[in-house]
Every structure is written in structure tokens, then in C-alpha cells.
Amino acid sequence: MKEIKDNVTALLIAKFQEEGFEDFFLVDIKMKTTNRMEVFVESDTVVNFRHLSKLNRYLQKHIDEAGWMGEKYTLDVSSPGIGQPLKLKRQYIKNVGRNVNITLNEGKPESGKLIKVEDNEIVIEQEQIRKERKKKIKELVKTSIPFDNIKKTVVKISFK
């Protein structure tokens, strides 16, 4: 299965050099069985059904010609979807300005607005309440979180 994943990865890297796919990147390939593959791609701008169907046909053609998965197999090409954890720095960059829920390696949750992505860390803006005498004062605090300390980050869905 690793060899098939490596071959599909190489095909996608080549495809992402073509016009119309230059800002695409591979997020993950999952194979639970030798005849079912899920390919998750993302774009720095937009992923639509037309892009996904072109990628699916492209991969299917090469998989069929090489016989990597036999006669009967299932190939799904999609974007990671709502609620899926961010895996790559490029996904963080695409989601700057959105609210995120972060689970740290030690299990502690953090949440806030993703405002910056650096080489080794992200910066979120959190609303905190502090007491000053008898008044509660809301203030925005910036918190840096190293990528090494992040177990999982999920973009919060807002219907506002």
C-alpha cells in the first residue's frame, strides 16, 4: 500500500504543476484496504467539484493503466471537509482570520482567532476577562503556540 501511496503522491505533485492546479497541495492519502483509496487535496484559494472530478479522472486513468489496485476499487478524491483537523502549515495559512479550537499535546484546550502563522508557531487572539476592583474587563490577548505543542486544530464553523 505504501508503494501505491507514493506513486499517487508523485502523480499529484506532477499534476499540481499544471495550469489551474498550481495552488493545490496534497493533505493526505488513506487506504484502509488494498481496493479503497481516499485522497484529500486542498488549495490555497478554492477547491470545487470540477477540480476534484478532474483529479479523480486523472488518478483513475493512471491507476488503471498501471494496475496498482486491481480490477475493482474505489477512489474518492475530496477536500478534507468541515470539522477535519488541520494537518499542514498551508491549511493554517488559508484559515487565518477564522476561529479555531486547539487541543494541546498535554490535552489542554485553547480557542481563539487564528491571526498569524509563523515557521514554527501560530498566534491566536483570545478574549480574556480580568477583574479590576468590582468591574470585569474584557481584553484581547495574543497567545503564541508552537506547532510542536499542537495535537489537533479544528476550524470552528460559524453561521453568522
Task: Walk me through what this model shows.
The protein has 160 residues and is of the alpha+beta class. The chain folds into 2 domains: 2-78, K homology (KH) domain (GMP Synthetase, Chain A, domain 3, 2-Layer Sandwich), CATH 3.30.300.20; 89-155, SH3 type barrels (Roll), CATH 2.30.30. Helices cover 24% and strands 42% of the residues. It has helices at 2-15, 49-66, 89-94; strands spanning 24-33, 36-43, 74-78, 99-104, 109-117, 121-132, 135-146, 150-155. The strands form 2 sheets. The chain has a 5-stranded antiparallel beta sheet. The chain has a 3-stranded mixed beta sheet with strand order 1-2-3, with helices on one face. The N and C termini lie far apart (43 Å). The model has no long low-confidence stretch (mean pLDDT 94).
The dominant shape is elongated
Q: Please state the structural category.
A: alpha+beta
Rg over C-alpha atoms, rounded to the nearest angstrom: 20 Å
Low-confidence stretches: none
Query: How many strands in all?
Result: 8
Helix content: 10-25%
Task: Please give the CATH class of the largest domain.
Answer: Alpha Beta
The CATH architecture designation of the largest domain is 2-Layer Sandwich
Instruction: Quickly count the helices.
Output: 3
Distance between the termini: 43 Å
Main β-sheet, in a few words? 5 strands, antiparallel
Quote the average pLDDT. Answer: 94
Percent of residues in beta strands: 35-45%
Strand order in the largest sheet: 7-6-5-4-8
For this structure, the CATH topology of the largest domain is GMP Synthetase, Chain A, domain 3
Identify the quaternary structure here.
single chain
**N-to-C series of helices and strands:** HEEHEHEEEEE
The fourth-level CATH homologous superfamily of the largest domain is K homology (KH) domain
